[in-house]
Design brief:
It is globular and about 50 Å long. It has one domain (17-288): Rossmann fold (3-Layer(aba) Sandwich). By secondary structure, the protein is of the alpha/beta class. It has helices at residues 17-24, 32-44, 48-68, 88-95, 108-117, 134-139, 141-146, 170-180, 202-213, 224-228; strands spanning 74-78, 100-105, 124-128, 154-158, 186-192, 235-236, 242-243, 282-288. Bound molecules: S-adenosylmethionine.
Length: 290
């Protein structure tokens, strides 16, 4: 990314979660403030880049499962993030050329980059909106044009709900999306948990959260039960709400990154991230509306 020419309206002096995540993924759509903040997080939680890649791998595996095994052709990806080497619409369209994907993000740079990547405007749309306003997202003309809510839709909330404050009631937000969808629709969630923190690295976790507090998106850690409650009204697809890397880990990643056996600088592998016992502190699951 050209450091001299940030897109208009983008404040590159304040670290931004979309661009920090982009940095963890080894991509280039980030600025000095993002890299500096991300490196501070990595200094206390060295597994962060591996966690980001494992999260993407989970997302891609989930989309492939939905598109191939669950018969889903419509995807609403909320808090979609900057495009990276493999993206929801590419995996969905590879499985079914009639697939439809709507990306939603409140970050204008994310939306601009996503739009630039789209080669199939009849199948893929991008909305700049706050996912905490389901009504705005669901009534948006792009959503209405691309998605048919009388048929099943996959609602994707991957690595995003931990940025939604409890005061905004993420459970009610998710329920509003679910209520708008037909039977057979699916919900895909990954979410940072605090379940390992007290047993492991409370000070380091607190320092990382402090860094995120300086972004527009402070992190809210939740328990397994709180995250499972997001699926209320859905049947959890086997194996339920599990650790991020434990959901169908034997399948190859659609983008070939094979994150479980990822080769990364040793100080950045999950195993080398002391304190979490080799675990990425993220739960992931897929639900189906009966
Ligand atoms: C960590 S990235 C996750 C990207 C992608 N879902 C993934 O898992 O790879 C979080 C994204 O959510 C977006 N975001 C955060 N809060 C949001 C909100 N209230 N509405 C829409 N997007 C939001 C950020 O701009 C960022 O792009």
């Amino acid at each position: 990314m050209g450091e001299d020419s940030p897109p208009s309206g983008v404040d590159v002096t304040v670290p931004n979660v979309a661009r920090m995540y982009d940095y963890y993924l080894g991509e280039k759509d980030n600025y000095a403030a993002d890299r500096e903040a991300a490196e501070k997080v990595i200094a206390v939680l060295p597994g962060s880049p591996v966690a980001a890649r494992a999260n993407r791998a989970f997302l891609m595996r989930a989309v492939r499962y939905l598109a191939t095994e669950a018969g889903i052709t419509q995807f609403l990806d909320l808090g979609a993030g900057l495009p990276t080497r493999s993206n929801v619409h590419q995996v969905a369209l590879a499985a079914n050329s009639d697939a439809r994907v709507v990306y939603v993000d409140w970050d204008s740079m994310v939306c601009a980059h996503s739009r630039a990547l789209i080669r199939d405007p009849g199948n893929v749309g991008v909305i700049e909106a706050d996912l905490r306003r389901p009504d705005t997202v669901l009534r948006h003309e792009t959503t209405r044009e691309l998605l048919d809510f009388s048929r099943p839709v996959a609602v994707i909330l991957v690595s995003i709900l931990h940025f939604v404050d409890g005061a905004d009631d993420p459970w009610a937000i998710v329920a509003e999306y679910r209520d708008a969808t037909a039977a057979g629709s699916h919900l895909v969630v990954s979410h940072l948990t605090g379940d390992l923190v007290e047993k492991a690295r409370p000070e380091q976790t607190e320092r990382a959260r402090e860094i995120y507090r300086r972004t527009a998106s402070p992190v809210h850690l939740r328990t397994h039960q709180e995250i499972e409650d997001l699926f209320k009204g859905d049947d959890l697809v086997d194996p339920g709400l599990v650790w991020l890397t434990d959901r169908r880990p034997d399948e190859p990643d659609p983008d070939g990154s094979d994150v479980v056996r990822l080769t990364a600088p040793p100080e950045r592998t999950v195993e080398e991230a002391p304190g979490y016992g080799g675990r990425i502190p993220v739960y992931a699951g897929v639900g189906r509306k009966p």
